[in-house]
Write a structure and sequence with these properties.
heterodimer; A: D-Maltodextrin-Binding Protein, domain 2; D-Maltodextrin-Binding Protein, domain 2; ten-stranded mixed sheet; B: mainly alpha; MetI-like fold; globular; disordered C terminus
């Protein structure tokens, strides 16, 4: 019996061993990237860097790219690795993510060769770390996205400003994700807080939430929903999404809102990187003209100040034309946009606090928030109707104003509903 | 306790300790950690139970589970009876069709339904174009849509387990009822259905627990207040707020324990009664009935209706796969093979990985699962209940939790995660309960006296197992094997945490391409490919493999 068991064990183990052995041995030169960049960019960079490596060192290089999700997930992945990272380069994500990595001591300084060609900051937004811990290689602006085909069918004009988005005609036609699911949405919440003032910013966020069709599962989900036309307007989208989508024939356009910021999509060298030397070669290449061309071909804008798209267009870089058309300027840094003066330190410091407030006061109470606002709007309509019939509505009017104030400024939905009901009662027997 | 049983138990426990207990206890330990201090305590749990929001999401999830179980049972009973008992043309095809939803990652099905039933989906646009309605109808966003999508996804589990029951119960019970004068319907309610309880519960537990682990479907359908979604958001999104992560883990642990409690309750109920018969179905087909013409047409209509709903998924994904820029139109207008050209460059590797990982996981599953089921049902080895309990724990832990715990456990301490073997190991551990439950319930239906007779005649335990038990168990085991492979093939939520470059499976490929919103066509093409592969696989097994489908789910086409 024992022999039989042994035999069956061998029968089972043998194919496993074979399979184990059949996986190819790994090449000598390797580099690993981890980060939330889009697949198109990772493919463009992979191809470009492989070619460059072959050309310069006459050797093949194996590149592994890990993108387990949005940047929170990527940062967390690095955190799980501890002091034994499974990649060399953190590729992508804006300043806040890199500031976290920096604070936790998970990245080390390295200034690539053309480091000085990247501006230091823009309207308060750091574009690179002074010590060289992280550097922006592909800047973009926070925009909103809309599907022109659907908006046309619904006979809605594209909303140009933040205020216009609150127009009731857009109700149920807007989608966004949660500020803690997407760094870009978090930036939008922060833009609104810094651009309108804290109190007014929260009021705005509340009103915007009442306009939403739903919360999407992430920023890319938003892109997907808008480009397919399920919901025509998406909040908080990287600027290059519209450029790439239009190139692929989707009827979407970006909306540069009246208040926005730059997001410095950045790169950093991980501490204890297993292939640190190759990592540094990659960083030097990424900021070279050749590397930057691969960035543009990968559907992102370029970070160096000395790049003019018209020059590249002549050199045969296909994306240069799309970039020029999308931006309307020849150099990314010439963009004239309604930038707010951004306080990165404040934003980094209150990151969790903002997320938590949004979650507890808006997301968790989303249903209540909407029903409260709709009740207020109904009663406001009734007050106006009564006014038109020359009924004395002074008391009801002040009561409904109180309701709106409780809703907008205090976020006290229950009190707002109570005041609205009282206003309605006052209308019934003035 | 014999020495053989003892060493077997030791082996099983060693595997379980490594793959389940160790990583999951690390996860549970995490839930007791207090953020921004090195301390430990029950503060997180106190906060959880004092927060009305968490309790509300918990209640919502229970309601959802109940509704989904009700819906799948109501639709599943007639369906599985038709498939198991009636002579019907094209039954193999129908059976394979109805299985389809579980071979797809849950989200692929949701996407297909959104494209078809969505606000500006095919159905609404068609209705609006023809002027029947003015404003779009909300078919899918809301609790009703959620119950619909999850029920369709989980229906196969109920159908599989019920038809396994219908074909394997001893026909003499039913014949006895008929002799005593019970009508067809009465016999069905009072004899047939109760006899299926063990296999039904095996499927029902899986169905009931599913809403506790599926975080994505509710989120895609705009329904947010469900426990797994909240847990997922807490674990995956709050990357600077460590406290929130611990709260997410608390949510996972709490829901797991509730699920386990429910599961134990179900099992106790089954084991209290006796469901065994001396013979399994007397023929390999079980009992087959030739229904009257009216019933036959009704059953056809019914099977066709369910199949049509299921078929929507491959049809819609197929349309998306062969087109691009499908925007705000009932059907695509721009047709192309470009998506397939792109994936042919990527997919050979993905397909190979999927097959290799799931295949190895399946070997692990059989080597482990059969002895485990044997131990749990047939022996009095001490701690067998604990073994069962621990294995079933995996069912209640969401994929993300398993992924996180594997990364925590197998990165620094035991560096398994640096080798690709972690992928099949994780698939094996995560999907093991599916296999075990099936083998387990088949064992319950097999009367021990048959084995005892063999052993009394002087045959060893090992040979008894191979010559007596296994052939009699084969139906349940094959259902388990097919289900296990399918479930491993479509696993993504754990794999997405563990994969490294070069280890991508097809579902990961679908996810990565969908992740970039504009490349939905490519994701759809991959999903379509996956459907085709699995469908062919199912048909091949049923044709060549000695009629596995037949053996597993009753008679085939003819």
């Amino acid at each position: 019996m024992k022999r039989r068991m042994l035999t069956s064990a061998i029968v089972v183990m043998f194919p496993i061993m074979l399979l184990l052995a059949s996986f190819p041995a790994e090449a000598q030169d390797k580099i690993g990237w981890v980060g939330p960049i889009y697949k198109e960019l990772s493919e463009s960079l992979t191809k470009g860097f492989k070619d460059y490596y072959k050309k310069t060192y006459n050797k093949d290089i194996t590149i592994t790219f890990l993108s387990p999700g949005g940047w929170p997930v990527c940062v967390d992945k690095v955190r799980t690795w501890g002091d034994k990272p499974d990649a060399d380069i953190f590729l992508g994500a804006g300043a806040p993510a890199h500031e976290v990595l920096k604070k936790e001591g998970r990245i080390v300084p390295y200034k690539p060769k053309d480091w000085d060609k990247i501006p230091a900051d823009l309207h308060g937004m750091k574009v690179k770390d002074e010590a060289g811990l992280w550097t922006c290689f592909a800047p973009w602006i926070v925009t909103n996205l809309y599907n022109e085909k659907v908006l046309k069918a619904l006979r809605l004009p594209p909303p140009k400003t933040w205020k216009e988005l609150l127009n009731p005609i857009y109700r149920g036609n807007i989608v966004q994700t949660l500020p803690y699911a997407s760094g870009t949405v978090h930036e939008v919440v922060e833009i609104l807080l810094q651009g309108f003032g804290e109190k007014e910013g929260w009021t705005y966020n509340r009103l915007l939430a009442s306009q939403l069709a739903r919360f999407s599962t992430g920023s890319t989900d938003t892109t997907h929903i808008v480009s397919r036309g399920e919901v025509p307007i998406g909040i908080a989208q990287p600027q290059m999404n519209a450029m790439v989508a239009r190139r692929d024939g989707y009827p979407v356009r970006d909306l540069l809102p009246d208040k926005t910021i730059l997001v410095p999509e950045a790169v950093a060298l991980l501490k204890n990187a297993p292939n640190e030397a190759v990592g540094k070669i990659f960083l030097d290449w990424l900021f070279s003209m050749e590397g930057q061309k691969c960035v543009l071909e990968g559907g992102y804008f370029t970070g160096r100040t000395d790049i003019n798209f018209s020059v590249w267009e002549k050199e045969g870089v296909t994306m240069a034309k799309h970039a020029k058309d999308a931006l309307g300027v020849d150099n990314f840094w010439d963009l004239k946009v309604g930038f707010i003066q951004y306080d990165l330190d404040l934003a980094t410091k209150r990151w969790d606090q903002v997320n938590r407030y949004y979650e507890y006061e808006i997301y968790r109470k989303w249903g209540e928030l909407k029903s409260s606002l709709f009740l207020i709007e109904e009663v406001e309509g009734e007050v106006n109707a009564a006014k038109a019939k020359k009924v004395n509505v002074t008391k009801a009017e002040s009561k409904i104003k109180e309701a709106r104030k409780s809703f907008e400024m205090d976020g006290d939905y229950a009190s707002a509903r109570l005041a609205a009901s009282q206003a309605r009662a006052l209308l019934a027997k003035p | 306790m014999s020495r053989g049983n003892f060493s077997l138990t030791a082996f099983l426990w060693a595997v379980i300790a490594l793959l389940v207990v160790y990583p999951l206890s690390i996860l549970v330990l995490e839930s007791f950690r207090i953020a921004e201090s090195a301390g430990w305590g029950i503060h997180n749990y106190l906060e959880f139970f004092q927060d009305t929001y968490y309790l509300k999401t918990f209640g919502n999830t229970l309601v959802l589970s109940t509704l989904v179980l009700l819906a799948t049972t109501l639709f599943g009973i007639p369906l599985s009876y038709i498939l198991a008992r009636y002579r019907q043309r094209g039954k193999t095809l129908f059976t394979a069709l109805i299985l389809l939803p579980i071979v797809l990652p849950a989200y692929a099905g949701v996407f297909a339904f959104i494209i078809f039933f969505g606000k500006f989906g095919t159905l609404n646009l068609l209705l609006m174009d023809t002027g029947i309605i003015k404003a779009p109808i909300n078919f899918i966003y809301g609790l009703h849509g959620l119950v619909f999508v999850q029920s369709l996804h989980l229906l196969p589990f109920i159908v599989l387990s019920l038809s396994a029951g219908f074909t394997t119960i001893d026909p003499s019970f039913e014949e006895a009822a008929e002799v005593e004068g019970a009508s067809g319907f009465r016999r069905f309610i009072t004899v047939t259905l109760p006899l299926c309880t063990p296999t039904y519960l095996a499927g029902a537990v899986i169905v009931f627990l599913w809403p506790f682990t599926d975080w994505l479907t509710p989120m895609i359908l705009g329904q947010v207040d469900f426990l797994p979604s909240v847990a997922y958001i807490n674990i995956a999104y709050h990357f600077t707020d460590v406290h929130r992560k611990y709260m997410g883990i608390v949510a996972v642990v709490v829901s797991s324990f509730v699920c386990i409690a429910l599961f134990l309750l179900a099992r106790r109920w089954v084991e209290r009664k006796k469901y065994t018969g001396l013979s399994k179905g007397t023929t390999s087909e079980g009992r087959v009935i030739e229904p009257g013409a009216g019933i036959k047409w009704l059953s056809y209509l019914y099977t066709f209706f369910i199949s049509a709903l299921v078929l929507l998924i491959p049809i819609v994904l197929g349309l998306a796969a062969f087109s691009r820029r499908w925007v705000f139109e009932p059907f695509p207008t721009y047709w192309t093979l470009e998506n397939f050209r792109v994936i042919l460059l990527e997919s050979p590797l993905l397909i190979r990985n999927s097959f290799v990982f799931s295949g190895i996981a399946l070997v692990f599953g059989m080597v482990f699962g059969l002895p485990a089921a044997y131990l749990i049902v047939r022996t009095r080895v001490r701690g067998k209940d604990a073994l069962d309990f621990v294995i079933t724990l995996m069912l209640a832990f969401p994929g993300i939790a398993v992924g996180v715990s594997y990364l925590l456990g197998f990165w620094k301490g035991i560096p398994l995660a640096t080798h690709w073997i972690i992928m099949p190991l994780a698939l094996f551990a995560r999907r093991l309960p599916y296999f075990l439950r099936m083998a387990h319930s088949s064992y319950l239906q097999l009367d021990v006296s048959l084995e005892e007779a063999s052993e009394v005649s002087g045959v060893g335990k090992f040979r008894t197992f191979f010559y007596i038990s296994l052939p009699l168990l084969i139906k349940g085991v094959l259902v388990g094997v097919v289900m296990f492979f399918i479930m491993a093939f479509q696993e993504i939520s754990t794999a997405i945490f563990l994969y490294r470059g070069g280890w991508e499976t097809l579902p990961i490929g679908i996810y990565l391409n969908w992740h970039r919103g504009m490349e939905f066509g490519i994701a759809a093409a991959m999903a379509f490919l996956m459907i085709v592969i699995t469908f062919i696989l199912l048909l091949i097994i049923s044709r060549i493999g000695g009629g596995v489908l037949k053996a597993a789910w009753g008679p085939g086409g003819k």
